[in-house]
TrEMBL record:
<feature type="domain" description="Xylose isomerase-like TIM barrel">
    <location>
        <begin position="36"/>
        <end position="230"/>
    </location>
</feature>
<dbReference type="InterPro" id="IPR013022">
    <property type="entry name" value="Xyl_isomerase-like_TIM-brl"/>
</dbReference>
<dbReference type="InterPro" id="IPR036237">
    <property type="entry name" value="Xyl_isomerase-like_sf"/>
</dbReference>
<keyword id="KW-0413">Isomerase</keyword>
<protein>
    <submittedName>
        <fullName>Xylose isomerase-like protein</fullName>
    </submittedName>
</protein>
<dbReference type="Pfam" id="PF01261">
    <property type="entry name" value="AP_endonuc_2"/>
</dbReference>
<dbReference type="GO" id="GO:0016853">
    <property type="term" value="F:isomerase activity"/>
</dbReference>
Amino acid sequence: MQLKVFRSLWGLEYSQEHPAANSKLSRREYYEHLFSDLRALGYDGIEASISDVWILVNGDYSAASANAEIDTVADAFLALLSKNNLQYICGVYTSWDDYIGPWQKRTVAEHTAQYKSQLAIARALKPVRINVHSGSDDFTLEEAVEFFASAQDLEKDAGVERLVSHETHRGRTLYNPWTTQILLAKFPNLHITLDISHWFVVVERLFSLEAYPDLFKVVLPRVRHVHARMGTSQHAQITFATNASATTNAATASEEEQEAQKVFEEIWRAWWESLRTLGSTFNDKMASMTPEYGPPPYQISSGDVARDGTELWAMANWQKGKLRDLFAQWVTGIGRTSGKDTLLCE
């Protein structure tokens, strides 16, 4: 089993003034430099929504014209990935794309129709994972069951069922752990992207493996991908990390942030152990994780756009390094249980 770390393009959208650009660059030049930098930093790939990909290639996105443009956009995007030896995780939305504009209530049929359309586009982009923002938090349980039954049929029809995972995201059907637990029991082949920072905010408390063993016994074996953003009971995103100017670090973390770090890392280690237990054929031997730290309002803004961008860049890179260290420690611990320091989960 390999740990593969992906960088979300959220917060790295092209702008001539973006701190990551470092100079006045065209859109294409910016992404050329960005992807090269991400590979040099040790990322295995990127995670981005369909509209992110269109903006990267075309400068804008229109759902109405996406199907007509897919071949041109896919060729350009895949060439850029190949040049930098990066893999791709595709973000898909069944409504309220990228959370831009006002939320509008949609029926299950409308969510399903959009999902079918976006799966066809996602497939053409050749992702290794498809992360889905699924349904809505205002679905009744009956509506949620109807949606996931239809969604799984669509995934099979598109031939992507082994790539798909549905995110535990606020505003979506899997926004809280208890609904998720019920739906996982109803759908044995339903898999999730675990972003537990959302759950902690929804229930307004940190809950550990020890506190809810029955929940995690159901949840962890269904996790196909992880958004490794740490948060607290009140904030979806922690505030500490070693930034470029080294003005803040983990030593400045609040007591709750320090406790949160322990809880998150315990859950991630338990997920790796769950993957090892499931065997080498599950999840394509890949533990994929994205340190998905986002810009304001997820990030507590300093009021300085350039500084916020620099902090965000450093935060994700810090988390990437921390994930690598934790995984190496976990692997070494497995080896020691058998008297040798070897990776026993292959």
